Amino acid sequence: NAGVMQNPRHLVRRRGQEARLRCSPMKGHSHVYWYRQLPEEGLKFMVYLQKENIIDESGMPKERFSAEFPKEGPSILRIQQVVRGDSAAYFCASSPDLAYEQYFGPGTRLTVT
Amino acid sequence: ELKVEQNPLFLSMQEGKNYTIYCNYSTTSDRLYWYRQDPGKSLESLFVLLSNGAVKQEGRLMASLDTKARLSTLHITAAVHDLSATYFCAGDNSGGSNYKLTFGKGTLLTVNP
Q1: Which residues contact B92 (CB under 8 A, 6 or more apart)?
Q2: Whether B97 contacts chain A with CB within 8 A
Q3: 3-state DSSP of chain B
Q4: Cβ of A105 and B101 within 8 Å?
Q5: Residue of A32, A38, A45 to mutate, interface with B, max B Cβ within 10 Å
Q6: Residues of B87-112 as b/e, b for ≥16 C-beta within 10 angstroms?
Q7: pLDDT one-digit tens code per residue, B34-53
Q8: Which of A32, A40, B8, B74 is geometrically suited to a Cys-Cys bond with A75, CB 3.0 to 4.6 A?
């Protein structure tokens, strides 16, 4: 059973461009969480999604960030008009149901130049 | 809102020595997790602690949970260089509809020969 997959693993964007990060959960998992790890900071929750629904986006910056988890295909974290402060590692985690352990993907390391 | 505090944040040990990392949390958490992260890598799940008094051991690492004191510990026995990494504890916000993880800031462990 393949683990959580994220791509790309490394992404370089210039200021003002868009970044799209993809997360394919483990087979049979319908719950996806996104976390961000900024340099010198710990991991922080961003958003929790179930298929076609955003359940909790309380950790998402108010502007430029959005997330989706469509019926078919991976979950997408989208950052518009990136700034240097968006440079971070973005991890997604999936679980088969609420209250089950989350399994983490390898992360996407975003660098904004 | 759950808050998680780890200490120490930096730990330099000699091989063969024992030490403990502490994790305090502010409110009820269904589970307490310990993760290991190597530089540039994802999170590796070490332990999931479910109930008061839970103790789990894997190799030179042992984790325990005291829900009354809201304290978890990660004890390292006879440290070896391979244990050098950052260790995170996390609680899940047992908020009914969301089990997002709240992480401590991490403990950077360096084991010196």
Answers
A1: B29, B30, B31, B33, B99, B100, B101, B102
A2: yes
A3: CCCEEEECCEEEEECCCCEEEEEEECCCCCCEEEEEECCCCCEEEEEEECCCCCEEEECCEEEEEECCCCEEEEEECCCCHHHCEEEEEEEECCCCCCCCEEECCCEEEEEEC
A4: no
A5: A45
A6: bbbbbbbeeeebbbbbbbbbbbbebe
A7: 999 999 999 999 999 988 88
A8: A32
Q: Which residues contact A72 (CB under 8 A, 6 or more apart)?
A: none
**Whole-angstrom Cα distance, residue A106 to residue B43?**
8
Q: With contacts defined as CB-CB under 8 Å, which chain B residues touch A42?
A: 88, 103-106
Give chain A's length: 113
Question: Which tens digit of pLDDT belongs to each residue from A53-62?
Answer: 999 999 999 9
Gap between the Cα atoms of B86 and A112, Å rounded = 25
The whole-angstrom separation of Cα A97 and Cα A33 is 12
pLDDT tens digits along A18-64 = 999 999 999 999 999 999 999 877 899 999 999 999 999 999 999 99
DSSP secondary structure, A26-86, as one string: PTT--EEEEEEE-TTS-EEEEEEEETTEEEE-TTS-SSSEEEE--SSS-EEEEE-S--GGG
Determine the distance in angstroms separating the CA of A98 from the nearest CA of chain B, rounded to an integer. 7
